[in-house]
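Q: I have 225 residues here and want to know how they pack in 3D. Can you give me a structure?
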Amino acid sequence: MLHLSKLDPFEGLSASLIEEINQVGTIRTYRKNQPAMSSDDTLNYFYVILTGRIKVYQYSPQTNREQTLYLLGHADMFDVLTVLDGKYHEVMTTALDDSEVLELPVEKVREWIDTNPAFNRVFFPYMAKQMRQIESLATDLSLYDTSTRLMKLILKNLDIKNPVSNLGLIHKLPHEELASMIGSVRHVVNRHLQQLKKEGIVDIEHKRLAVNDVEKLLKKVEVEY
């Protein structure tokens, strides 16, 4: 039995629901660079990310290319689509860090959606957030070049209060992972980053990316638009 006193990102859950989560939930761990929850798993279970980062992606063996759909971190959920329609979701996952997730029976989650307003107040806005993210990805892939897509990705993950040391979910990601997120390849991303470094906008050291000039980056994205 678990001993959760609360569950991020859910606020205001009743003590009885927290107790039920403790009774039915299980903590799963995934090692870095290993597969995480599978499409078969999500037919039966729903997941809340507790620690680490997990990549959700699709892969084409014909082109040997990946396209990242979501990068999940603390308090993210997976898989909202299967919870809603009960259908097999053909995606792959990889833990980018040593990660822990809370595994919940999908039928229990559907029951909470039907009966618990506090659960719904987080679940449905999160679902909308993921839909907007996929819409944004489709728009970026259709309308913008790789340089602009990369800059937009950096800005989306940037902590404006601490731009030099914090890039959110893309912090310390290899260039090939950044490429997978914007529909490109490693050497193209590397070329764009080197150009940004030459212009004094970013700094790259030991695979760590830092933004030196936020205003210049914002202006450059506006020009690229």
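Q: Anything worth noting?
A: The longest strand covers residues 65-72. The chain has a mean pLDDT of 92.
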